[in-house]
Amino acid sequence: MKKILGIGLLTLSLFASDKILNQNEALKILKSSPIYNQIAPKLKKGLKVKGQEKKDFYLITVYDKRGEGNLFITKNLKYTILGNILNNQTKQIIRPTYPAEPFSGNKQTVKDGVVFTMGHGNKDLYVVTDPECPFCQRFEKLAEQSHLADKYTIHVIFLPLAFHKHSKAMIYYILSAKNDKEKAKRFKETLNGGNTYSKFTPTAKEKENIDKIISKSEKAANELGAKGTPSFYDKNMNEIKDRGSIFR
């Protein structure tokens, strides 16, 4: 997952009673921090800022289509904290959850990037995934257990991450299949630990064609603003942040 400022993403929802800060409010807080000087030149290039006011500190998020990062500023505006804050009571790391922003990109670019579709449910689900991603592999197990394909028509978009050295080989194997049914079968097989992909070598023509498909798929993921894998989007291509809701 790409990050801004090298700040790790955090992992616990904030309470609903915490105040959401808009860009102007968050920037006003951020100007007290030396980090602001790094961010200011990027604001004209699409970087955005939002925040959350908690009892003891402000949580500020900077983000664009490439990713996001979080930092904390104390209420007296004297200190900036980079990294994680642990809640001593819950023993969990704190992260913000903001209301999902409506998709404003090009829907056709997203549709063009779908590599195959599986499932036969009456709800559409767009999934940005990488067959080598361990989190995607865990999600596949949950999807199988909950019969997700009966509830959704799942549109798969591949985003091969650079640090997954086998991802491209897996994708060549999956997308060389003749139809969506066979692609879905190979996809699930690979996610479940199958290594048939390692014995497959695409022809030069197959590789050329699949590389074009991968390129469109990566553009779709970028259009959606996917920050990592797996990422999930509804029929309107709005991000689904509450992943538990997918199974409900």
Please describe what this structure looks like.
- With 248 residues, the protein is an alpha+beta fold.
- The protein has two domains: 19-93; 107-247, Glutaredoxin.
- It is built from nine helices and eleven strands.
- The strands form three sheets. A five-stranded antiparallel β-sheet has the order 1-2-3-4-5, covered by helices on one side.
- Helix 6 (167-175) packs antiparallel against helix 7.
- The model is unreliable at 1-16 (pLDDT under 50).
- Content-based structural category: alpha+beta
> Can you tell me the CATH topology of the largest domain?
Glutaredoxin
The SSE string, one letter per element, is EHHEEEEEEHEEHHEHHHEH
Unreliable stretches covering 5 or more consecutive residues? 1-16
Strand residues, percent: 15-25%
Total of helices: 9
Global Rg: 20 Å
How would you write the strand order of the largest sheet?
Answer: 1-2-3-4-5
Q: How is the biggest beta sheet arranged?
A: 5 strands, antiparallel
CATH superfamily of the largest domain: Glutaredoxin
- The backbone outline, from C-alpha atoms, is elongated
Tally the structural domains.
Answer: 2
Into which percent range does the helicity of residues fall?
25-40%
